[in-house]
């Protein structure tokens, strides 16, 4: 069974209806030109590349992998579905097939609802392990303790990096240690990395945002290439190209080959999206630099906003343009409802398992985000 996803039902239509959008986390620009033009505004006027490498080869090169370690997907949601289904299939094949016990998906908490419900829909059992506040760091020992309590095969351990909804960033060494925990039980580590590139370059303007790593894809940390590790990425969040629905998974060659067989059961990536994604990679450095500057400015706006409020608790992680924040007198639903009444969209933390606060995301243009924070500040003043 695939139950309705409460968060996606709640958020549907709200970003477009809100006067001030502090709920959407993708670094999106206002639409420009003909709304029926299939070319995203960020790619308009940019030349198509001469055919040199396929999109799969381009993605593989970004992660310093062989193309046999990459599977293109119709966005990150599609990639996460394929990764979870493939890990479950491998666990079943390893432990008795259809007659064996149902495998486990061990998923971080707090966390994004589909990461739990998609494995359940596929037929896996879901268990949780805690990323404890206030820092919400990933702790391999906590993962190991939770895995030890599971009776039956482990299909995968699932984490997000950056963590959704808090923005906490995990380094590659910690991801490697967590992957070892999953591998010891015969499973894989699945890392949703759609927010991993949300970093800034060292030495850039704004010292509060000096986090950047230069050893991963698009400048952010990655688990790609680690043993027993599968990563999910896309052009949606950091790159602001959600309309293309272009994503990918990386993983061991045997995992990718099995995922190709799973993909036969669901729609695949459309050829026009592939062509436009190749145009992105032809201008990759310029577009990534632009996105990083967008991210830096929004991070600084959010950090300054929190620093200026004595009624909010939380942390804007270095380089992150989104954060989980709690108000001293009102819970997440009360804050979100008051904001919505004033035309401001923020997301209740209950959709991530955190009832006391809200996720505030600065994805829109910096000037728009500055106005949105001013409006949100007036809401908070009135609580």
Describe the structure.
The structure is a single chain. This protein is α/β, with parallel strands linked by helices and 383 residues long. It is built from 12 helices and 13 strands. The strands form 3 sheets. It has a 7-stranded mixed β-sheet, sandwiched between helices. Strand 5, helix 7 and strand 6 form a beta-alpha-beta unit. Helix 10 packs parallel to helix 12. The longest helix is centred in the C-terminal third of the chain and has 24 residues.
Radius of gyration: 20 Å
For the biggest β-sheet, the strand order reads 2-8-7-6-5-3-4
Rounded average pLDDT = 93
- Largest sheet features: 7 strands, mixed
Percentage of residues assigned to helices: 25-40%
Total helical elements: 12
According to DSSP, the number of beta strands is 13
- β-strand percent reads 15-25%
Give the N-to-C terminal Cα separation.
40 Å
- Poorly predicted ranges: 202-214
SSE order, one letter for each helix or strand: HHEHEHEHEHEHEEEHHHEEHEEEH
Shape: globular
The structural class is alpha/beta
GO molecular function, one term: transaminase activity
Organism: Halobaculum roseum
Protein name: Aminotransferase
EC number: 2.6.1.-
Offer a concise description of the structure.
The chain has 383 residues and is of the alpha/beta class.
List the helices and strands and how they pair.
Layout: H1 6-11, H2 14-17, E1 20-21, H3 55-62, E2 70-73, H4 76-94, E3 104-109, H5 114-122, E4 125-130, H6 140-148, E5 154-160, H7 172-184, E6 188-192, E7 229-234, E8 247-250, H8 253-263, H9 271-282, H10 284-307, E9 312-314, E10 322-327, H11 332-341, E11 344-345, E12 347-348, E13 357-361, H12 366-381
Parallel strand pairs: 1-11, 3-4, 3-5, 5-6, 6-7
Antiparallel strand pairs: 2-8, 7-8, 9-10, 10-13, 12-13
Helix pairs in contact: 4-5, 4-8, 6-7, 10-12
